[in-house]
Design goal:
The complex is a heterodimer of chains A (834) and B (218). Chain A has 834 residues and is α+β, with helices and mostly antiparallel strands. The model of chain B has no long low-confidence stretch (mean pLDDT 90). Classes of the chains: A alpha+beta (834), B alpha/beta (218). Chain A: Keywords: Cell membrane, Membrane, Transmembrane, Transmembrane helix.
Chain lengths: 834, 218
């Protein structure tokens, strides 16, 4: 009871400390708690909605029509089937009178999807309600109307036939699983699709078999069935279970949250450093009370419990405030996140999340509290090594937390370890350098002299502040520069990029197409033949077996996926401007099919070579429409994909595939012509042709990148605020420690101005050197990352860097000024009669 | 040398006023060593604060070397104190991040004494700490800290030393040794000493001993 009484007295009588503590810790955990909370909500929604995302228990899809024999074979390998449908979808240029766009045409099957479905704007639903569309009717997404400038009831030409827009779709549970998910959808009846004559040889189409099993199987069991089936059916077919839809969305979600998790981890770390200093200062202030209470008979155990409970209550109050804010504001923030991840998840108050958080907070109280409280009770000064050892449980807890909060495997853990190593490194090098810089005696300038001695001889504080500011500025000059570099890579030389990609053109169409494009003031360029094939062997070893046996788990999974997929092959002998051979030699010339002594030569793109695990000189066997071709890798090349010029992972030399059935890929140059008119004309003259508007495509990708960069930028600013709050706490702690020294200096006759200047120089130097080094390290880091990822489209951001360069030191000086003025006006006569 | 004339000083706590000195008169000659004794709360610390010019009397005048404190502005008074008064405290009050040499050099730097480093080394040697120049206060014993404090108080040749219980935190043997050093150096420099102490033995070393009772020195 006495413990509780003491705790409440401590809380009531240190109001400003308690408020600062709660403010600091609330800020520290807010971002992390928000992210975790939404992740739990989304994960849980995905788990329950996984079947709706797929529409069925299992889907088998193929780019070619699935034969009856294949269907029977699949059926024999599956559990008892309750219902089954055959789906088909394709992409096509769809035009209104004024506009044309590439869209996805999906055949509606009766009773499908088995889970989830469509909700129309008129509030009717399908399949539980609305009947199938008639042969001349279509259902469309709102985007179709927006993009083509149409309205409900308007006619719409698809292929060779005119249709009426009967319904507008508001929600579609199958939206995310689509193989061409970025395109707006048009649902059409089976008869309507036949009439349109869209499905011809060479058309990009997806054929699906949708299964509903009699038994209600859970998602993991369905994944097992999926994996078994994958092993035993034609490798050109893909098998999907509900978990695939979930995983696909999780990947998008992880892309958004990975970066944010790391930034929020930094905020959390900074907040904890602030918390340790703050609580350490509080205990130091109450050291005499602790000694007196101990002398009066309160046991060390009870004293420890008193301060642990005090710490836990403060942490709990902060957490309750943050959790209440999350619950209150989630309804406003959820729609923004739903839009960003393109998934209408259900907002969920998961009590497990709160329980887990409470346990973590209790562990934090113990691992921070004990190393701070116990040395005070022992009444002896602990050496540095012992202090570090006592914080090891806290460090382990941090590493574990970092591991669990980051969505990508091990990213958080490695990030925290890297931070820890950097901190140890900075402390080690810093302590060594500071020792080297120490000198005896005074300089001519007394303020500078006192400042340097404080920096050099209060190593722990100087290095903590330096390292914290350094890590902050490094990270926060790195993030915006990487963001802008990526945007830069996407927007640079836009005029040199093609405006349209032409996919699935037939060889015989190219001449007419070229003339037509030229008549409209553009050029048909980058004409490349495209042949579908599959790698079956690498160096005489079956590629599927190889992918299962070699490399780590991630590489195995990736290779296994690649070994199931067919690849696009092309041929040409010359390199493009955007390519560079980094290993090996150029092709020896055109392949002579009569000379069998020379092997076929193949060029592999660098990253693809790494993904499938092949090297220069390896022999690959391709299956091209049943024909086996053996080729040797004569070069590995890099491709600047950011230039948006069409290219291929695998290039064969000319003369090998010239006679194989193929489609042609080409580009239409950018220029001063009417792009809408170009689309309208091409879709009218070549209805089976697929024309992708590259500008729109990369603008939507750029939009996503900019959204993520903007959020990360804002999160960075948030972390900077926490970093500054931490600096405020450290400076306050340090100034309180210096209070007596200030009075001693005053008593000796050192002028107030000299004392104030010494502190301004001390913290100014730390802050300026740390932020300068941070900016340099961040810029070097962003340059290296840009060079590695975006082929050196590095965007130097002097605006952001200058802001940090001036903002952080100036704010530090203001904080120091504030505290010095507070202390410096105290009368030094308190030194008498102590 | 030092003269306190008709000093009046009271502290105010809310509506209450606590009278410390009502009409205090006190005179110390140059080179004189004076001990002031008194019970806790008798006003010894207030007296030292008044003599050092940190606090101002409500009424009356303080003169040091014929200079009236009330004629000096605050910054001039601070400079005057720095030049003319040296301090020795019960808790030593060395600047924690400066080593022994730098602590001793500091008043010399403030008062622009020539060759501060040489003088500080000489003084530290004279108090027996020639081998501890580079040591921080945390690395020194209590007796050593007080010897550094004595050296610091004397380096700029102040007219007067104010010593507040200089042996109060030391054991008897160390205290006596420190007092020996203090009195020896003071005698050598002909410096005036005002020493506040509870110890009759320490007071006996001085030429005059006063007791502060009810705001008067007797």
């Amino acid at each position: 009871m006495l413990i509780v009484e003491l705790v409440f007295k401590a809380l009531a009588r240190s109001k400003s400390f308690s408020l600062l503590f709660i403010f600091n810790f609330s800020l520290a955990i807010a971002a992390l708690a928000y992210l975790q909370f939404f992740k739990v909500s989304i994960d849980s929604s995905l788990e329950t909605q996984a079947k709706s995302l797929l529409g069925s228990d299992l889907v088998v899809s193929s780019r070619f029509p699935i034969s009856t024999e294949q269907e029977e074979d699949i059926k024999s390998k599956l559990p008892e089937i309750k219902s089954f449908t055959q789906g088909v979808s394709t992409v096509s240029m769809i035009a209104s009178k004024t506009r044309a766009r590439l869209m996805q045409i999906v055949k509606v099957n009766e009773g499908f999807p088995y889970y989830g479905g469509l909700v129309f704007k008129d509030k009717s639903i399908y399949p539980k309600g609305e009947g199938l569309p008639k042969a001349n009717e279509v259902w469309v997404y709102q985007e179709v109307l927006d993009l083509l400038n149409l309205k409900l009831g308007d006619p719409l030409k698809i292929g060779k036939e005119n249709f009426v827009i009967k319904k507008v779709i508001k929600d579609d549970t199958l939206k995310t699983i689509s193989f061409s998910g970025f395109m707006p959808k048009i649902y059409i009846s089976e008869e309507g699709l036949k009439k349109s004559e869209l499905l011809q040889f060479g058309s990009t189409a997806s054929y699906k078999l949708n299964y509903l099993f009699k038994e209600n199987l859970d998602n993991d069991r369905l994944e097992e069935i999926e994996n078994k089936l994958k092993e035993s059916i034609d490798q050109s077919m893909r098998v999907l279970s509900p978990n695939d839809g979930r995983d696909r969305l999780l990947r998008v979600l992880n892309f958004v949250t990975n970066f944010l998790s790391l930034v929020s981890l930094v905020s959390f770390f900074l907040g904890l450093v602030g918390l340790i200093y703050l609580y350490s200062g509080f205990l130091r202030k109450h050291q005499k009370d602790i000694t007196v209470l101990n002398d009066l008979g309160l046991s060390k155990r009870n004293l420890t419990l008193t301060y642990l409970l005090h710490l836990f209550i403060l942490i709990s109050i902060s957490s309750i405030i943050v959790f209440s804010l999350i619950v209150f504001t989630a309804q406003f923030i959820a729609p923004m996140i739903q839009k960003l991840v393109d998934f209408d998840f259900h907002f969920l108050l998961d009590y497990n999340f709160f329980m887990q958080s409470s346990l973590v907070l209790l562990a934090l109280s113990l691992t921070i509290g004990l190393p701070l409280i116990l040395p005070l009770l022992q009444r002896e000064k602990q050496n540095f090594f012992k202090t570090v050892l006592s914080f090891i449980p806290f460090i382990i807890l941090l590493l574990l937390l970092s591991h669990f909060v980051s969505p990508a495997k091990n990213v958080g853990f490695f990030f925290a370890v890297a931070m820890l190593i950097l901190i140890i490194l900075f402390f080690g090098i810093g302590a060594f350098l500071l020792k080297k810089f120490d000198f005896s005696g005074h300089l001519e300038n007394l303020s500078l002299s006192l400042a340097l001695k404080n920096i050099v001889r209060q190593k722990k504080t100087s290095l903590t502040l330096f390292t914290a500011i350094l890590l902050c500025t490094t990270l926060f000059s790195l993030i915006p520069q990487i963001g802008s570099s990526l945007s830069n890579a996407l927007t640079l030389s836009v005029d040199d990029r093609p405006r349209f990609f032409v996919i699935d053109a037939k060889e015989e169409q190219i001449k007419d197409l070229s003339v037509q494009v030229s008549n409209m003031g553009a050029k048909l360029e980058n004409i490349a033949p495209m042949i579908r094939g599959r790698i079956v062997k690498v160096n005489d070893v079956d590629f599927k077996k190889l992918s299962k046996n070699n490399g780590d788990d991630k590489a195995k999974t990736e290779r296994n996926e690649l070994s199931n997929r067919s690849v696009n092959l092309s041929y040409r002998n010359e390199l493009k401007k955007s390519e560079e051979i980094i290993e090996g030699r150029a092709f020896s010339g055109v392949y002579d099919s009569k000379d069998f002594s020379k092997p076929i030569e193949v060029s592999v793109e660098k990253r693809y070579a790494k993904r499938i695990g092949v090297n220069l000189g390896d022999r690959l066997v391709f299956d091209v429409l049943g024909l086996k071709l053996e080729a040797i890798i004569v070069n590995i090349r890099t491709v600047k994909w950011t230039e948006f010029a069409p290219n291929f992972f695998l290039l064969l030399q000319e003369g090998v595939l010239d006679d194989a059935p193929k489609t042609v890929l080409a580009t239409i140059s950018s220029g001063d012509y009417d792009a809408q008119q170009m689309l309208l004309t091409l879709s009218d003259l070549f209805p089976s042709l697929t024309v992708v508007d590259v500008k729109n495509l990369f603008e939507s990708f750029l939009g996503l990148v900019n959204d993520v960069t903007a959020i990360t930028d804002k999160m960075s600013l948030y972390s900077i605020i926490i970093g500054l709050l931490m600096s405020f706490i450290i400076i306050q702690y340090q100034m309180n420690l210096q209070k007596n020294n200030i009075l001693r200096l005053k008593m000796i006759g050192v002028k107030n101005k000299t004392i104030r200047n010494s502190f301004l120089i001390e913290f100014g130097l730390i802050s300026l050197s740390a932020s300068t080094l941070g900016i340099v390290l961040g810029s070097i880091g962003s340059y290296v990352i840009s060079a590695l990822l975006f082929n050196s489209y590095w965007d130097f951001r002097p605006d952001v860097l200058l802001l940090y360069f001036f903002f952080i030191p100036i704010l530090t000086l203001l904080i120091v000024s504030f505290f010095t003025s507070k202390i410096i006006h105290q009368k030094e006569n308190v030194l008498f009669g102590e | 040398m030092l003269e306190l004339k008709s000093l009046k000083k009271a502290y105010h706590q809310g509506s209450q006023s606590i009278e410390i000195f009502e009409n205090l008169n006190f005179h110390v000659k140059r080179g004189e060593r004076v001990a002031i004794m008194g019970k806790s709360g008798s006003g010894k610390s207030t007296l030292l604060s008044l003599i050092s010019g940190i606090i101002k009397p409500d009424e009356g005048d303080i003169f040091l070397n014929a200079t009236a404190y009330k004629d000096l502005k605050e910054s001039a008074l601070n400079d005057f104190r720095a030049t003319n008064i040296g301090f020795i405290f019960q808790n030593f009050h060395l600047v924690s991040y400066l080593n022994a040499l730098e602590n001793v050099m500091l008043p010399a730097k403030v008062c622009k004494v020539s060759n501060p480093k040489e003088k500080a080394i000489e003084l530290l040697k004279s108090v027996g700490l020639g081998h501890r120049l580079d040591h921080l206060p945390s690395e020194l014993s209590g007796g050593e800290k007080q010897r550094v404090a004595i050296a610091r108080a004397l380096i700029h040749n102040p007219k007067i030393i104010l010593a507040d219980e200089p042996s109060g935190n030391l054991d008897e043997e160390t205290g006596n040794a420190v007092m020996d050093i203090l009195f020896e150096l003071i005698k050598k420099n002909n410096t005036t000493l005002i020493l506040v102490t509870h110890s009759q033995e320490v007071a006996n070393r001085c030429e005059k001993t006063y007791e502060l009772v009810s705001g008067s020195l007797t």
